[in-house]
Amino acid sequence: MKNIVILISGRGSNMQAIVEANLPHRIAAVISNRADAGGLEYAVARGIPTAVVSHREHPTREAFDTVLAAEIDRHRPDLVVLAGFMRILTPGFVEHFAGRLINIHPSLLPSYTGLHTHQRAIEDGVKLHGCTVHFVTADLDHGPIIAQGAVPVLCDDTPDTLAARILKIEHRIYPQAVGWLCSGQVSLNASGKVVSKGAETSDGFVISPVLE
Ligand code: GRF
Predict the structure, then answer these.
(1) What is the predicted pLDDT for the residue at 110?
(2) Closest alpha carbon to 175 in 126, 133, 119, 142
(3) Per-residue model confidence (pLDDT) at position 175
(4) Maximum Cα interatomic distance, the chain, rounded to a whole number of Å
(5) Cα(40) to centroid of ligand 1, in Å?
(6) Which of 119, 139, 142, 188 places its Cα 20 to 30 Å from the Cα of 113?
(7) What domains appear along the chain, each with residue ranges and CATH number?
(8) Nearest residue CA, atom 2 of ligand 1?
C-alpha cells in the first residue's frame, strides 16, 4: 500500500474524486495553503488527516516551501498529488519530490500553460480542449505527461461551460493516473519519459465537431 499526500487550495473536487476512487492505497494527508479551502471539510469528514501551511505566514517562497515539504514528509509519501494547489513551487521543492510529484492542468499541454486556459481556447477557436496529468518539474506546466483527456469545444461554450465539461474528465483521469503510478503500471524511466505497461492500443479517432 502506497502513501498519497494531496495538496489543495480550494474546493478540492479532484481530491474528492481520488478519495472516492477507493484505490488500494492510503490517503495519508490532505494539506492546504489556505485554512478556508472548501475541500478540507470533506477530508475531515472522511477521517483523513489534514493540515494547513499558510503561505501568508512565511516571508519567502523558499521559507514556505521548506515548511510545506517538512509537513508532507511527515507522512512518508510515495506520491504527492497537486489538486488545484495554487502556489508556484520552488526548484528546491520540486527537486526534493522529483518523480513523486504530479499535477492536473486544465488544458491539453503543451498548449495553454498558465491561467485562463478555457477562455484562451475559446478565443483561439480550437475544437478540442481538455486536461493533462503530468509530473511536476521546475519548468511550470511542462513536466512529462502521464495522461490526457479531451472534450469537444462547442460553438456556444463559455469558459464556465467548457470548464464544467473538462472537470468531469479530470475526475476520471486523475484517480486513474494516481492508481497507475501507485501500482507501477505507469512510471517515469531514467530518460525522463513516461512509460506504461500493457497499455491498450486503439486506432479510434476523436473528431470535433461531430457532423453527419
Ligand atoms: C481544476 O480545474 C484543475 O485542473 C486546476 O484547478 C482546478 C481545481 O479544482 N489545476 P478542484 O479544487 O480540484 O475542484
Answers:
(1) 98
(2) 133
(3) 98
(4) 59
(5) 14
(6) 188
(7) 3-105+133-150+168-196 (3.40.50.170)
(8) 106
